[in-house]
Amino acid sequence: MTQQNGNPAPKPRRSRKPKQNTPVPVVATAGKQPSKKDQVLALLRRENGATLEEMVIATAWLPHTTRAALTGLRKAGHAIEKGKRDDVTCYSIKAQA
Questions:
Q1: Which domains are present in the chain?
Q2: How far is residue 69's CA from residue 39's CA, in Å, rounded to a whole number?
Q3: In what order do the strands lie in the sheet with 50-51?
Q4: 3-state DSSP call for residue 80?
Q5: How many CB atoms lie within 10 A of CB 66?
Q6: Taking the model in full, what pTM does it have?
């Protein structure tokens, strides 16, 4: 099929299936949807922190994107520490004195 100008017609775009969402413990402000950065910060502030997989599921980002976001948070001044939970790397935000 071609358009009137002789160029081929554009192909219809396919939409992706949404990933399975899991509940994220984020407190939304009045009428404002929390950003993915807010979701990651909420996960990092939990008592046990968050694993990379938990953050990937919560944000629907790829693992390398999630790690880049952690680097961005470090550069923004958040003190993120790494630890282990059941032989899995766990990230958390240090409590400020």
A1: 36-93 (1.10.10.10)
A2: 12
A3: 50-51, 88-93, 80-85
A4: strand
A5: 22
A6: 0.64
